[in-house]
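Why should sequence recovery work at all? Because a backbone constrains its sequence more than one might expect. Tight turns favour small or flexible residues, buried strands favour hydrophobic ones, and helices have their own preferences. The token representation captures these environments compactly. In the example below, the structure is given first.
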């Protein structure tokens, strides 16, 4: 039993489980600090931000069906490319719609800081994930 427990702990350190709630909380904290949001601003902004993220996530899930497409079928691939392009445009339209909503509750300068902070957070998270947890 001890060997099994130690093995599972070692595996978890090598491949830590992704916690979406922690990721979201860390991102919100990062954005709040980077954009210098007051508690009032954060309370007006983050519900809209989460709503935008849910809609974008739905689009990304829709795109997942094209990951394992048989590339030897050109007609199927052509249709998939067209559908993926439409989804990409839909994602950008969602982003545009919410950026306008953000600017109704925050100054444009803070919205720009938020956009930059979110981008930086995702780049840092991706870099950290690519590096892995390191040696035990």
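From this structural description, the recovered sequence reads:
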């Amino acid at each position: 039993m001890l060997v099994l427990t130690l093995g599972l702990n070692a595996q978890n350190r090598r491949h830590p489980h992704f916690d979406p709630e922690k990721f979201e909380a860390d991102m919100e904290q990062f954005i709040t600090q980077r954009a210098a949001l007051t508690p009032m601003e954060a309370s007006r902004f983050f519900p809209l931000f989460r709503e935008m993220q849910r809609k974008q996530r739905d689009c990304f899930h829709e795109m997942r069906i094209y990951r394992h497409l048989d590339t030897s079928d050109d007609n199927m691939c052509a249709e998939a490319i067209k559908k993926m392009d439409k989804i990409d445009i839909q994602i950008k339209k969602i982003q545009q719609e919410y950026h306008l909503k953000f600017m109704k509750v925050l100054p444009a300068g803070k919205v720009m800081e938020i956009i930059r902070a979110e981008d930086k957070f995702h780049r840092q998270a991706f870099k950290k994930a690519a590096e892995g947890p390191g040696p035990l």
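A few observations help interpret the result. The radius of gyration is 20 Å.
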